[in-house]
Amino acid sequence: MIEVFGGYAFARIDSGAGYWTNMNIGGMGSVGWNFKPWLQLVGDSSYSTVTISGTKNVLYGNHFGARYFHRRLSRWGATPFVEALAGGSRADTIVSGVGGYTASANCVSYKVGGGVDLHPSRHWEIRLFDVDYYRTAFGTNGHENNYWASAGIVLRLFGGSSDY
Q1: Is residue 163 part of a domain?
Q2: 88 lies in a domain?
Q3: What are the pLDDT digits (tens) for 94-128?
Q4: 101: buried, middle or exposed (CB in 10 Å: 19+, 13-18, 0-12)?
């Protein structure tokens, strides 16, 4: 079975020296292949942005890994999951106006976390939340301890049901 997810994404980014930036405008998509009812291989792609005082910051991410589902019959049709994903991230800073410039940086990154899906029907799910610790390493010998959250809709394709 294949699962396709699309939804809203929020990122809380460590800007260094104790400062945080909330990236409130964002989206995320993923595709997962369940090769076991409880184990999924997943790839996701994300985009988040915020503009502060004429400076636009954009964060892109592409991650791949495994997601483990705890599937059981539930009164609410809820399925909790945990995930571990690794990949790469890119940060763009765009300063507009006279003397404006664009700066970009790439890094290896990973996400570890989990969430809960609700099953209202055989082919549709609601991802109530997916919250991850999101580790990036932009700059020389640097690392940022970030947080990521998303919610949206999951479409289940090519068989399967919500009852495993």
Answers
A1: no
A2: yes
A3: 998 888 899 999 999 999 999 999 988 888 999 99
A4: exposed
